[in-house]
Write a structure and sequence with these properties.
Layout (H helix, E strand, L loop, with lengths): L6 E5 L1 H5 L2 H12 L7 H15 L6 E7 L2 E10 L27 E9 L8 H11 L5 E6 L4 H9 L3 E7 L8 E8 L7
Parallel strand pairs: 4-5
Antiparallel strand pairs: 1-2, 2-3, 3-4, 5-7, 6-7
Helix pairs in contact: 2-3
């Protein structure tokens, strides 16, 4: 199926709550089976993160559907100062970097997932651009597996800049995360 057959839709938290089971299925499909890994651990952690994000300030979900099937999604929210997103960032950022200015400075791109069969068709990029293109914050941030160098290269190609690593929170899937930031609004839609 061609990318032009994909419909992108914005949803608020209330609508997103009703899509949670579908989001979990896409998430599980996007990651697939990994030898020696208990897939329920990662899926359960995702469900917890996705549910917790619903109450975040300015939460938004963008879905991608083809023939009614959910093939991908992205969600995020405005970063509150008390979230302390950049705590432990190494190298230490310059003065003022962590000031969220009343939760209007930074949007967290919390998840971006595309079903395996639909990967490589620019759906992830379209989700990314649709989500960030509608945001009013001045910058965006995301965190990623520190060893996922192919993913890092993809993000950098989309205009993200790696600013360091930070420790994972208790119960996080990884012990540390690579942290990326990019300016908004989107001006370079390569």
């Amino acid at each position: 199926m061609a990318v032009t057959d994909v419909t992108y839709t914005r949803h608020g938290a209330e609508a997103a709550a009703g899509l949670l089971d579908e989001l979990c299925m896409v998430y599980a499909d996007a990651y697939g089976q990994v030898a020696g890994e208990d897939t329920t651990v990662k899926a359960d952690a995702f469900r917890d993160r996705a549910t917790g994000a619903l109450s975040a300030r300015n939460y938004e979900l963008v879905t991608a559907r083809a023939d009614g099937e959910l093939v991908g999604f992205v969600f995020g929210y405005s970063l509150r100062q008390e979230r302390d997103w950049f705590a432990g960032l190494d190298p230490a950022p310059e003065a003022g970097f962590t000031d969220e200015r009343g939760a209007e400075r930074t949007v967290v791109l919390a998840e971006i997932e595309v079903r395996k069969a639909w990967q490589g068709q620019r759906i992830g990029r379209s989700l990314h651009d649709t989500f960030l293109g509608g945001r009013l914050e001045e910058r965006a941030t995301l965190s990623a597996n520190p060893d996922a160098t192919a993913t890092h290269a993809l993000y950098e190609g989309w205009g993200w800049r790696r600013v360091g690593t930070k420790p994972g929170r208790p119960g996080a899937y990884y012990r540390e995360y690579a942290v990326f930031v990019r300016r908004l609004p989107l001006l370079d839609r390569r």
